[in-house]
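QA checklist item 7 of 12: single-chain prediction sanity check.
[x] sequence parsed
[x] length recorded as 295
[x] structure emitted
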Amino acid sequence: MSRGKIMVVDDSPEDLEILEMILEDFFITSLYDNAQEALQALASKPHPDLVLLDVEMPGIDGYEACEIIRNDASLSDVDVIFLSAHDSTEEIIRGLNTGGIDYITKPYDPEILRNKLYKALALRAQRLHLKKQAETATRRAQLMLTEADISSHAIRFLRASFEAPHGEQLMMKLVETLRTMELHAVAYFNSDTEQHIASTAGSVNALENELLYRFDGLGKPFIEKDSHMFVVHETVVVFVKNMPKERNKRMMLRDFFTPVVEGASARLKYFDALNKHAGKVNFSQPTPAEKHHEM
């Protein structure tokens, strides 16, 4: 397997030297001590697979550089990971809003750092594979979000939920419903005996994992900012990334999610009762909480 190409941008010579020592034997690296020179290098090909961007730099900082990268169509396949001495929720949300897929905190643990990069490269390869498949298929007509459409999707999901024998199947039905509605979303179930996470995109990146973990259990049912919305109800969290701008459509989606997450939570309680009686615990894959403790 070919080694991933990593561009590192950090204004600290000491941090650049440390990162080079950690990465040089495992990846093809290029180092830059300022964002302006790194952006000039990105204008030429071949492009790196990942860019590690320090958040705090003089001149163009990491967030600004990421926005420039994300606004360049020719760099759409280049993923950005932030380097930071902080990990506040505000920083994570800002990083996600500017187009980053993960953040790595200083000081660096070499093994954790390399594992994060390997996982990011694997997710990138999966995404590019799915993108290639999508480009060869005929794109279906975009689904119009009308009140009748949304109500029918909610009813179909609730009916289908009663056929799900366990939480993993319930999650598949929820993600299928959201994908049919052309919602870009990540869902998380976290009951006593059932923990599952899935995305309409097929994979969940590290920032999405972290945000789901942080919003799990909050008292507010809806948390909205720009095109993002978190729907929180007991054991269910749904993160929608492409909320429409129109107020009436946003309200219709709120009306859709209220019975959907309540129904999913009720079904998970039923599974909990069955699992406790049978002595079972069902985890389909590492959950946000588990991934948080791995960091």
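[x] summary fact logged: The longest helix spans residues 247-278.
[ ] second reviewer sign-off
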